[in-house]
Design a protein that fits this description.
GO terms for molecular function: RNA binding. By secondary structure, the protein is of the alpha+beta class. The chain has six helices and ten strands; from the N terminus they run βααββββαβαβαββαβ. It has a five-stranded antiparallel β-sheet with strand order 1-2-3-4-5. Strands 6-8-9-10-7 form a five-stranded mixed β-sheet.
Length: about 190
Amino acid sequence: MFKKDISPGAKSKVKSSAQRAIRSKVIEQYPKLEPYIDDILPKKEQLDLVKLPDRVSLYTLGATPLFFQHMDDPLLPHLTLVHKYPDSFQLLRIDRGAIRFVLSGATLMVPGLTSAGGRLPDDDADEEGRYGDEDLEAGEVVVVEAEGKDHACMVGVLKVGTKEMREKKKGIACEAGHYLGDGLWGLG
């Protein structure tokens, strides 16, 4: 979505009523963020809306990007927020071979998640239970970590469910919404 450098458009202040709606939508979409919601979206602080190309809205608190949304799609967290609260999102892990493709903006393919280094929810190889124990459905927002790395490298929306990924082991797994080094990451 943000392969090229982007230039921000108009910046406007979000009304307090809209801010409350965004806050409740965040809690509904990401229930694990609820304990931190006052740190992320303080009630007394002013939330800003930055218009980006291709009908994308970026919500910021001061200079800190928090969430972005394409038209009426779900709110997706910015990677800076994901790096602060990594365990508050649904996680998947790609193997080492898929890292360079993801960081160049390619669509995440199923083999990157189902190979030996990849992890899906309810995986036998997931000893500590970090990736959850319930299968995910198509359309859910996921944060993708890379094998051997400390921080998440991508946020996206699943194209197929994780159960189907395990069965077919091929095809498109996830659309890249935002990844390290993309235009949104480099936005000043």
